[in-house]
Amino acid sequence: MSTFDEHHHIENDPSYKGLKVNKGVESVPTVNPDAAKRFLKKKKPRLAIDDYVKGILDGNVTVLSQAVTMVESSKPDHQEIAQQIIEKCLPYAGKSIRLGITGVPGAGKSTFIESMGMHIIRNGGKLAVLAIDPSSERSKGSILGDKTRMEKLSGESNAYIRPSPSAGSLGGVARKTRETIILCEAAGFDTIFIETVGVGQSETAVHSMVDFFLLLMLAGAGDELQGIKRGIMEMADAITINKADGSNKERANLAQAEYRSALHLFPPTKSGWTPEVKTCSSLYHEGIAEIWDMVQEYVELTKNNNYFEANRRSQAKYWMYESINEQLRNHFYQREEIKSGLELNEKLVLNDEKSSFMAAKDLLDKYFKNIK
Amino acid sequence: MSTFDEHHHIENDPSYKGLKVNKGVESVPTVNPDAAKRFLKKKKPRLAIDDYVKGILDGNVTVLSQAVTMVESSKPDHQEIAQQIIEKCLPYAGKSIRLGITGVPGAGKSTFIESMGMHIIRNGGKLAVLAIDPSSERSKGSILGDKTRMEKLSGESNAYIRPSPSAGSLGGVARKTRETIILCEAAGFDTIFIETVGVGQSETAVHSMVDFFLLLMLAGAGDELQGIKRGIMEMADAITINKADGSNKERANLAQAEYRSALHLFPPTKSGWTPEVKTCSSLYHEGIAEIWDMVQEYVELTKNNNYFEANRRSQAKYWMYESINEQLRNHFYQREEIKSGLELNEKLVLNDEKSSFMAAKDLLDKYFKNIK
């Protein structure tokens, strides 16, 4: 204050040649009003819903990414924006081939996706690569976060690579991925890959959102199979023995023959398609074109016998019911009265002191008495 | 009235030698009070809870059947009695081998069960045969209702055959069967068969309540497989090619070899058991003893590596959560506000006019606003 007064005093001196300092106002605003205005504007979405939609329909990948970020956000206002975008994109979605790709770590999924992806792009396709990996602790980034995994593909303007949504419940991650498919399709991507690691619960989720499900394997069925979950083989529309190159080629052919004879014992699929076994070398780009041709054949067959469309519709229905069931469960298990009783009831059940159904009933009684 | 008065009059005549008729009371009760008492008593359970439990523990099959009827009843008071009986039987249950048997109609399940069952009984075992067949319209009676199907077995005092509970939701039928297992075990049955038709949704349910899951097949993998659901083969602890007799024997051996090489490509089971493929002729009782020996081997292996007990515990837990989830769903879908909105939302989803998740959200919002 003394300094101010000093200046003030000096200023009034006619001989003063220094900077003119205006008299201060009584209450100085603590925040610059212009900056505040700009700041508040930034908190709002940078784009209006229609701008998002237009950007997506124009194939603008930056806008697409921003919309996907909204889809993945857990904030309610972001979610509302996301739902509005999705709603407006829905009529433009659906016109793609959705391919699920699974296999244990080490089966060579990234190299396969890169090789197959480049093949598709060279043939004029537009490819989006998504992933479901709810268990990943390497998020935000997940299994696909490391862009160096698909160096060539990530440099292509007709490829869009998006890592798995951050770790969360499988239901949540699956929902986000399924909504991202819609946005990618509306943005003009005609091929969607959804990658997953074939060791957890996510294969059923992926299987329920794709047209074709491909299981990537290695030759020498034995140790390599240790990780694969039982039941996945019977979901596959095709098994591909990867790394069929060099000294491994013979073993791959043998494995192919074995899997072929195994698959013919399986019950027929609902699609009318007979699951095939192929070999390929993603590293040397051998057999890749044949696999893509096979997928095209599948699409042609199932579009002709109407399974393709019927399956899409039943998937949409499945996700509606699945989403309802998941949220009913979430609501239940998050209630305080349930949290407090769950552990004890589980313990009683495990010790054969209470029947599973009585334990369930006791918990449900607590829950339902709060419903009008 | 005139007749009565007449008699009355006559009676007072000293010369009257006929039957003496007492003077009537003013208000004749319309129901005999003694009969009413007996009738009301009949409406109550004939046995007290402890009588049920004692009867079951004594191995009284009549009492067991009455208790199972309570389990299967949908009346709330019967359900309460059932739960109390189960609770008291739980400490005595669990000491059996639970075997799931599935296969398409025509695979010869009844003949197999009869042949295997007689083998078990001849070796001193006590066998209960239950079934899960929620789809059956032939109830009450279901696939096992026709006792002639297992003529020999049903005449044995150490065999207890109980048809599938009447048609209802799979969850409901599964619950009833699982509770019936407990009662049968408490009654001293050391082997429980649970039969199901391998074409529906019930195999997963059966698989989740048994120690060993056996898939019954026929030779000539082709047409016979049409009915089997995909995914069942990977659940099986053993595949048995039935009807391996006469001119069919060679084909059965061929099928056995094929399935063996197919199964070795499957991922290993959690139990440490390698699924086997056997042949048998239920009609000529060939190969039956070998299959039973295999089941014993499995039990020995898994009791030694603790999988047996761990699996039982995880099944009990599974059923607690499954029961909760089922009843949450039932409650939701039975609400008026949901019933009225469900069809429209499903239609919008199927026509790509609304996203699966938005439809789910709109329905859930209606539901949750009624919860305190």
From TrEMBL, chains A, B:
MF annotations from Gene Ontology: hydrolase activity
CDD domains per UniProt: MMAA-like (cd03114)
Q: E.C. number, please?
A: 3.6.5.-
One Pfam family of this protein, by short name? MeaB
- The top EC class is hydrolase
Regions that span the bilayer: none
Spell out the SUPFAM superfamilies in the cross-references.
P-loop containing nucleoside triphosphate hydrolases
InterPro entries per record:
GTPase_ArgK (IPR005129), P-loop_NTPase (IPR027417)
Q: Which domain of life is it from?
A: Bacteria
Q: Which keywords annotate this record?
A: Hydrolase
NCBIfam families from the UniProt entry: lao (TIGR00750), PRK09435.1 (NF006958)
Q: Which family does it belong to?
A: Belongs to the SIMIBI class G3E GTPase family. ArgK/MeaB subfamily.
**UniProt protein name:** Methylmalonyl Co-A mutase-associated GTPase MeaB
Q: Which gene encodes it?
A: meaB
